[in-house]
Design goal:
By secondary structure, the chain is mostly helical. Helix 2 crosses helix 7, helix 6 packs antiparallel against helix 7 and helix 7 packs antiparallel against helix 8.
Length: about 270
């Protein structure tokens, strides 16, 4: 069991669970919107998510003097040469995949890619919460392959909103847990910029909105099972929020928080 946890921790440090969650979530929306997934697009999504998360960590450690406070940043410090090499390799593969995607998706993908580049280059100067921007980019990237080919109804837009809220809650909870490390490493986050009590109120407010919308969807027959998946995802984040003493140990909050985006596979496989 310890070996499994150790292996998953490495998987988590490399952000591969985030990548897997993004691909699963994109398939989740493809099934909801009844769109046949473009496999080159799914592979590109996974690679792009890995590029964003890895580049973000490598840029973070450039500002750190000495050893980083968090295990995640220490891992990227120790392996930055190898990770930079793999960033270039993955970026080249990602660019090649563009030639195998639908034309409409390429056009929208270019716009999203430009937004990602702007975020990476100007993230220190943008006077908007990093967590909010990443949640928007992540949700857009996950939904984009399905968005192009379907006329969506009110409930479907609500599902996208719910997914965005879950992604945002996830990121804010992480920044709340990592406040001390971010202060030590001089990294900006919503938790370092806003008082503790306000962060708690923001999280409680977002969770109330998330559960309220989920309950509404639960009583819409076509979306009954989908709402249960989203409720389960939000429930894990609520548990992480309310049981900080337990989840703070060994970075369990990271392992559990990133794993929630694997939950939609239950709906995909049913």
């Amino acid at each position: 069991m310890k070996e499994v946890i150790k292996l998953y921790r490495l998987f988590n440090l490399l952000s591969l669970d985030v990548v897997t969650g993004a691909v699963i979530s994109s398939l989740f929306f493809s099934k909801i919107l009844e769109v046949v997934p473009s496999y080159p697009s799914l592979i590109s999504l996974g690679l792009t998510v890995w590029i964003i998360y890895t580049a973000d960590r490598l840029l973070d450690i450039q500002d750190v003097k000495g050893e980083a406070a968090s295990e995640r940043h220490r891992f990227h410090q120790r392996n930055q040469t190898k990770l930079k090499y793999w960033l270039v390799v993955v970026l080249i593969i990602d660019i090649v995949l563009i030639f195998f995607m639908p034309v409409k998706l390429i056009k929208h993908g270019i716009i999203l890619s430009l937004a990602v580049v702007i975020y990476i280059l100007l993230r220190r100067k943008l006077h908007i919460s990093k967590e909010l921007l990443v949640a928007v980019l992540y949700t857009t990237g996950v939904v984009l392959p399905s968005w192009l080919e379907n006329q969506m109804g009110f409930e479907q837009y609500l599902i996208i909103l719910l997914f965005f809220l879950i992604a945002l809650i996830n990121l804010i909870v992480f920044s709340w847990y990592e406040k001390e490390n971010d202060l030590r490493d001089r990294q900006d986050s919503v938790a370092t910029l806003i008082e503790e009590i306000k962060i708690r109120y923001i999280l409680m407010g977002l969770l109330v909105i998330t559960f309220s919308i989920s309950i509404y969807l639960f009583f819409q027959p076509p979306y009954h099972f989908i709402s249960l998946v989203l409720i389960a995802m939000a429930a894990i984040l609520l548990l992480i929020f309310t049981c900080k003493r337990f989840f703070a140990r060994n970075d369990y909050y990271r392992l559990a928080g990133d794993a929630v985006f694997l939950f939609p596979i239950v709906y995909i496989l049913q």
